[in-house]
Structures are given as C-alpha cells and as structure tokens.
Amino acid sequence: MKEYFFVGTYTEPILFGTGEVFQGKGKGVYLCALEDGNIRVLEQLACRNPSFLCVDPGKKKVYAVNEMKEYNGEFGGGLTQISYGSGAMATQRDMGTGATDPCHVALAPNGRFLSVANFASGAVTVFPLDDEGNIGERQIFQHRGSSVHPIRQRGPHAHATIFLEGENLMFVPDLGMDMVKAYRYEGSDVTPAPELDIPVPAGSGPRSGVFSRDGRFFYLIHEISSQVSCYACDRGRMTRIGCVETLPEGVEKDTNICSDLHLTPDGRFLYASNRGHDSLCCCRVEADGGLTVLHHIPCGGRTPRNFAIDPTGKYLLVGNQDSDTIALFAIREDGNLTALGLTEFGSPVCIRFFEQ
C-alpha cells in the first residue's frame, strides 16, 4: 500500500530560542511516498525555512510557515500557500505573519481559517480562508507574560495551536508564559477565552498537545521539564489527572528538551520525542485517560524535531533534524516500536501524512 506525506525542512540559518544557530540543509517542501518500507521523493518546491506544514486534501493545498525574523523585507516570518495534485507543486501566494519565527500552522476544523503560532515574539496570527482555500488578511493576538527560566522564559513563546473539535475552541501552549491560552471561534472570527486558560507548573515550558479522538482527554508535552501532562476535558475545561516523565530514570533533565507527541489513530498508544536523549518515549493510554510508560527507544538520529504516524497506525516516521535522516519504525500490536531503516534527508523538521 502506497501512502503519501509532505516534509518541511530548514533551508537557511536560524537562531533558536536555546541560543543555537542552526544551518539548514534542506531545499524546501517535499512530496514523498511510503511503500513497502521505502521512502521516495516525488516532488520538491523551493520555499524558505518551511518548518511546519498543514495540508487540506480537499482543496489540494499545503500551507507552510516560513520560520524567519524577517520575510520579504518585512518584520516577522511568512506563510506560503502551495497547490499540489496537478502534476507539480506551485506557490500560489505568500504573506507575512506580522510576528517572528512562526513555528506551527493548523487548519481550523471548519476550514474557515488558519492559525499560526509565532515562537520568538509570542503571538498567534489568524488568516481567514475563502471558499477556495486562499489566505486573506491577518489578525494578530499578542501574548504577554514570562516565567521562571532565565533564558527560555523571559517573554511569551507561542508554540502550537490545537483545536478541540465540536466545541469551537483553540488552545495555544505558550512555552515562555507557562500557560496554555484558550480562544473561541465562530466562522473565521477568533476571540480570547481567558476563563479557559490552563496554567502549568512554573518552568515546565508547554510546547504542544493533542486531544483524544472523543475530546475527553488532552495530553500536553513540556519542552523544558521533559514531561507529558494528562488532562480530563469537559467542554474545554481542563482538570489535570496525571503526568509522566519522558526520560528513563537517572537521565538528567538539563541534557534534554522535548519536542513532539502523537496518539495512534486507535488512541491506544501515545509517543513523545526527546531531543538530547534522542529517543522516543512509548506510552499506553489507560481507560481513565492516564499514561503508562512502556519503554524508550533511540530515534535513529540526532534531534527528533517532529514525527508522524501514518493513517493506518502501522508506521511511525521521525525527522532527525541534526543528522539529516528520516527514521522509519513499525508500530507493533503491543505499542512497542521496531526500527526499519533510515533515509537521508536534509534538515527534516516536519512530516505530515495526508489521504488522497
């Protein structure tokens, strides 16, 4: 069975929040196929630092953030709209986000807008979409605040936007504020919902999250403290019910920062990635929504910035940013992972499967 996915890469130097300057080796956005354990590049489109992507298969569009501090001569990064499916990918339009280092983009469940998290300046940019999926004029929501880490949390750092389907709610983990900010939306109109904000332990640095398919549970990964918190969710109101460590016992936390997490399509297992320890933490999801750590496995390279699970739930692909590889794993029935091989790939930082 052939499956398809897009890969975003770093293409030029970027200054990270950790103080490191990374030299990107990628060439833009890639359309790839996975078949019989083999990864093959089908198409490639030049694009500047497309570090995160989202796909609208119905309209045959990919939206890529351009993670930069200045884009097209203007302050802030960019958002590039790409078409695919007609023989070759093509850039249709691009716009500035009005804020620096956009690192995540998501399509609202109603298809009416895109939300972009801008890490360096700690803002959320909302782009309305017309009936053809074309991006319109932006609206910016600037976060304000800080927390206890003297380097990583001197100001706000919005890192992702996560939608709770059926409730018209959007949640934005802000690593710099130790807060998950909440928003309501109607159509393409977005407004803050501070009564649903989620404060997290000081110094933990929330980065990204995922809801269970039924919306009853929310899982939040903490970049700085190397943990995943579990919440019971009642129409957007969160109650923390547990927390697990992503590192094996005895590993020092100051040598690691977490990056990504995903649930399998059947909701039975959750995986979280460690950068520094360069591993995947494999967890079983219990009936009460809690997590039980099963094991840890090396991710097959250095700095697993992002990973993805294919729609069948059989495979997991890891983008190893610093070793220029994509690692392929098989997901076994018991949730454990088996390494299947590596594919050379310049600075892979986002992997997104989509269905034809």
Q: Which stretches of 5+ consecutive residues score pLDDT under 50?
A: none
Major pleated sheet: 5 strands, antiparallel
Tally the beta strands.
33
Mean pLDDT, to the nearest integer, reads: 97
Shape: globular
Helix content: under 10%
Structural class determined from secondary elements: mainly beta
Q: Specify Rg, calculated over alpha carbons.
A: 19 Å
Q: Span between N and C termini? A: 13 Å
Number of helices: 0
Strand coverage percent:
over 45%
Can you tell me about this structure?
The chain has strands at 3-9, 14-15, 21-22, 29-35, 38-45, 50-56, 61-66, 70-71, 74-75, 78-83, 90-96, 102-107, 113-118, 123-128, 139-142, 162-164, 169-174, 179-186, 189-192, 198-199, 206-211, 217-222, 227-234, 237-245, 257-263, 269-275, 279-285, 291-298, 304-309, 315-320, 325-331, 337-344, 348-354. By secondary structure, it is mainly beta. Strands 16, 17, 18, 19 and 20 form a 5-stranded antiparallel β-sheet that branches. The chain has a 4-stranded antiparallel β-sheet with strand order 5-4-1-33, with no helix packed on it. The chain has a 4-stranded antiparallel β-sheet with strand order 6-7-10-11, with no helix packed on it. It is globular and about 50 Å long. The chain starts with a strand and ends with a strand.
